[in-house]
From TrEMBL:
Protein known as: DNA-directed DNA polymerase
Enzyme Commission numbers on file: 2.7.7.7
Catalytic activity from the UniProt record: DNA(n) + a 2'-deoxyribonucleoside 5'-triphosphate = DNA(n+1) + diphosphate
Keyword Coiled coil included in the entry's annotation: no
Amino acid sequence: MQVAEVERGRAAIAGIAQRRPKALGVALDVRGRDGARLRSGDDPRGAQLEGLAIAVGLDGDRDDAVLLLERALLCDPALDLGGLLAPLWQGQPAPYLVFADAHRALGVLAARGVSAPTRFGCATAASTLLGEGADRRRDHRPIDRSVRELLGRELPDGLLTVSSTSVRLACEAEALLELLRAMTPMLRDRGLARVYSFECSLIPAVVAMEAVGIRVDAPRFERIASGWVRERAELDVDAEVEGVVERAARLDKLISTYRYWARDYVGQDQRMRCRLHPLAADSGRFSCSEPNLQQVPAEHTAPGLRACFVAAPEHKLIIADYAQIELRVAAHLAPCEAMRAVFRAGRDPHRATAANLAGKPEHEIDSHERKLAKAVNFGFLFGMGARRFAQYARDSYGLELDEREAAAAREAFFRTFPGIAAWHRRIGAMSRAGEREDITVVTAMGRRRTFLAGHFSFNTALNIPVQGTAAEGFKIAMLKLEPALAQIGGRGVLVVHDEYIAEVPAAQAERGREIVEQVMIAAMAELVDSVPIVVEAEIADHWG
DNA sequence: TAAGTGCCGGAC
DNA sequence: AAACGTCCGGCACTTA
């Protein structure tokens, strides 16, 4: 990463402009308590701002610059950011202005009462909320399209070139302001003003969670990783022993992905900090990167790894997740009275399907039958076919089915839950219409996903409203948990789709558990009120 | 040599 | 008629 003080930075901008840079990052030179430059893994609290720094260059450099900017915003509440950035974003000589992850900038800056740069946030939020879909490696396309639509012209070459995970924007300041002036009514017209405003209000909680990080037992993490490396070295893949090649492949995956996490991501305070992206995913779920803590292998894949994520001394973790949330949300949205009734009666949906499949009452269902039914419920909910189900049941549940049995299971599922069947038929009709017209599906909060004519996806159209509504309920919970936990000295440390992890003082553990459970239930119930919501929350010393 | 893309496998 | 989805990141390969 190239970092320079202001004057050098400006000179660098002028120089690099002639090379038509892909991006230009604005960062702040931030020093930790020990005076050393703050690195991405470090605790940003208590750090000092030494001066404005500018990072120029191509992709990777820019990411570092933005990371520093974000951390800086967390460090110094009194920071006059508007004043610092003004020469860059209003005046010359900066030919380009970049706000990577502008939506985050919006939330943070708005919370500080900085008005002008906050407008950058609209474009990012809009491109996701407008539901045009994004490829993580080509996510500038929706923005390009929005820009063309709103401005009625192309932007000059080189001004809109982005390629990274969260939606990022590189644009000429004048054109950007013009874009944003047009964007706000567009959000309003499409009924997105509320969800957009909600997403903005969520940002401080997201940023707080990133800043806090999660405590990691780094030596233990390293020992586990070393164990993989040793085991891999001892494997002889040429020996043609059953399963060795597969084991080697799994170990290679673990080693290449996780071996250096402890070294690269654990800060001096022994906490690991990721980046959370509330508006990067079409579904409305969070995505996570650098590192992707939502992808840490579970116990059955890498024993003991999650247990390296621990509570701070004198603290406990509260680990809470929604029980069968996708089934519940689907029962609500479809709507499916049969499935709603199962949940309302406190019955087990897997047992209900098993009963229909085996042709006997629910209380006679054994564990094997229930296991099959679980695969059936999760598999067929979003439109899986019988053939693929047979494979899925084998790979994920160790069940052997032929195609005829898989088809019978599928029929039993739809017989058990006729409302789900009707919902699938309705989306099937959309599929046919989608050949020649654009189709939009929406979530409970009005988040959109549009399929352009000829690009409809049956399965995605089933999935997005369900997954998205669950994500929105989860986000409401996250918003409310921030102040609720603070009252007992606790805080959220990680979110993993339908799982919330908090850290609270040990003496407050039971109180914290109750708070998390109650708030999560109430939040989801705001969007999903036709079935009860169940949260399983436990007190633990470590994750996993 | 860096960037772009397909495939795969980890999570939920 | 049939169709499980949402992500991120590593590796292998092509392209310019």
